[in-house]
Amino acid sequence: MEVKIYREPENIGLLLNEDELAEYQQLAEELGIPDVKGDKTPSVFQTLNQVQIRALEALCPAKTELAFYNRSTIPVEVLRAIKFIKENEMFDFIKVWYDDKNPDPIIVGEKYRTQNDRTNGYSWNTEKILVARWGDCAYELPELVEMGKARLKEEFTAKAIDVQSKIESFLEHPELYVNKYLSEGRINFEA
Q1: Domain that holds residue 168
Q2: Contact (CB, 8 A) for 129 and 97
Q3: pLDDT tens digits along 60-82
Q4: Is pLDDT of 13 > 80?
Q5: Is the pLDDT of residue 128 over 90?
Q6: pTM of the model
Q7: Distance (Å, rounded) from C-alpha 170 to C-alpha 167?
Q8: Would you call 96 helix, strand, or coil by DSSP?
């Protein structure tokens, strides 16, 4: 089993070096950066954009809170990263995304975009941050995105072929479908 922790390369020192962390916090305070608190460690993990989120959701469509995940054993290296995240209150939620077809789960941290979102519990409006993945191979994020695209292409193509065959059937036997509509009140090319 391989493990991949997705740290931003330029911020790795913030995770390991107390002097750089202290300098980061001091500069952030001097510059008035609002989300940085002096006693908190900034996230050193990779924030996901919408394309990356959709591709990863294609690979791992099931999501659960960390406390409820029971599909596989979480490796020690991942548990260490989670402990660090929790001790430093980096995220509002930690979730496990997984898929029964491909048992290589990922850990995704989520944090509210604004204080108003946090106050109102708007969990739909969160930043998603890739923390870790474990399984057969330790893929980099661009590789995972390409794998997600390939899975979506396969799924969409299969759906399009299915719809195409239903449309062709309609075109070959329109009377049958008109009668079906008259008796049932609908025709569904999706089902």
Answers
A1: 145-184
A2: no
A3: 999 999 999 998 899 999 999 99
A4: no
A5: yes
A6: 0.78
A7: 5
A8: strand
Report the residue count for the chain: 191
pLDDT at 80: 93
Q: If pLDDT is split at 50, 70 and 90, which confidence band does 186 have?
A: confident
Nearest residue to 38 via CA among 29, 47, 30, 46: 29
| Cβ-Cβ contacts under 8 Å for 16 (sequence gap 6 or more) | none
Contact 95, 82 (CB under 8 A): no
How many structural domains comprise the chain? Answer: 2
User: Could you give the CA distance from residue 8 to residue 130 in angstroms, rounded to a whole number?
Assistant: 10
In a domain, 191, yes or no: no
Residue 41: name the closest of 14, 78, 11 by CA: 14
Note whether 178 and 134 are same-domain residues. Answer: no
Residues whose CB falls within 8 Å of the CB of residue 46, separated by 6 or more in sequence, listed in order: 6, 7, 8, 129, 130, 141
| Farthest CA pair distance, the chain | 78
Name 106's bridge partners.
97, 133
